[in-house]
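Quick one: examine the sequence and fold tokens given here and explain what the tokens say about the fold. Here goes:
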Amino acid sequence: MSPTLVLSLIAGYFTVLIIIALLTSRKATSESFFIANRNAPWYMVAFAMIGTSLSGVTFISVPGMVMGQSWSYMAVVFGYIIGYLVIGTVLMPLYYRLQLVSIYTYLEQRFGFWSYKTGAFFFLLSRAIGAAFRLFLVAGVLQFAVFDAMGVPFAVTVSVSILLIYLYTFRGGLKTILWTDAFQTLAMLTCVGVSIYLISSELNLGFKQMVQTVRDSEMSRIYFSDLKDDKYFWKQFASGAFITIVMTGLDQDLMQKNLSCRNLQEAQKNMFWFTISIVLVNVFFLSLGVLLYKFAAAKGIQLPTNPATGKIIGDNVFPLLATEHFTLFAGVVFILGIIAVTYASADSALTALTTSFCVDFLDIKRYPEQQQARYRKLTHFVFSVILIVIILIFKAINDQSVITAVFKAAGYTYGPLLGLYSFGLFTRRPLNDKLVPYICLACPILTFIINANSKAWFGGYEFGFEILIVNGLMTFLGLLAISRPTAPAVNSVG
């Protein structure tokens, strides 16, 4: 695929996004930047959230992982349903009742100043790492498809990518992002549908034959019953439920969109339809993965492997086939799809990072609107630079599937949030607030030590994504240790 063609696609795509940003950011205020004036239609929020929650990791890593992991990821997706149910029935009513802009202000009301700042800090850490990992993936694809041939360094590719996101988000914030993400979700879904159709056509498969091919493949196996296997169904299922609760329900990024709905009922309606959509979309991506490997086998294509292990590099399968072995049109569809889904996730994450820092650490509401705008734009720029730095570090050290890296990182960084919110919601005990940061820093370290020694300590057992549950439980127990019983109510006489 010609680098000139790809650059033209990128330029045209971002031109559309900037036009949308200019139209939607007129008279933007901090209220519209943070929560879109609490006036967003629920159906737009539900549709925009699809692109935000998936990212380029799903677009590339999920299809690529089916050779080694089969459809075991579907167990995680089934767990999502339970997680979204908890969010819609437990967390959303709480957030709407308290009329929150940043969801971490709940921790201040429940426990105190240090708990609040600790929760907000762990969100900033978690979302910055997660967003950077996702952007790393698409920057790598663009590097492979275009910029390597032009002699452009990877650092420049990353910097330009994030600069483009900054340009269309720094003024309008969430008000703009709801529109751009809806557009990008539409582009992504169109691209995955077209990709499945084009590959099926290349394999001479009609719709029924395609469904039969996917269903009959060993790669579409969902249920794994070995408890020690990292693909064990119920372990994956439980992990999916907790991953959803923390990476959506305790995450300012996705909850910021939910809080932009007009009322709780509309937000819950959004969550219901979003849940159905996200399950179906993941089925499409896993089906695409089976078809990609079938296509490579039918055409005798040598897939990229890790020289050290000899294993296929799943994250490189779709990009390689799309840019070097598909038709030009299919390659164009792939490039547009990966750009759409990745930037839908990254622009939302950058805005959420800005929102959390401005609200939770700068207390921006105490300043006049003009000064708020200045601080907001500066914060937005600083987080853009931070994302660039994290991506470059990740490129130097990564040796695994990006989706695996994202969930592993989430296990350590979101665990304290899971423990804090669980303790707040399911107990009435007050905490020694000043000790909370120490507990929340110690538990991820202890979790890492347990994970590193699990084979030796637990008879060969290996932790997967459920390491998040371990971290959350340890945090909960640590908080219990620094809590005190609720004082009994005093009955007055007379």
The first helix runs from residue 3 to 24. The CA atoms of residues 230 and 376 lie 43 Å apart. DSSP finds 21 helices and no strands in the chain.
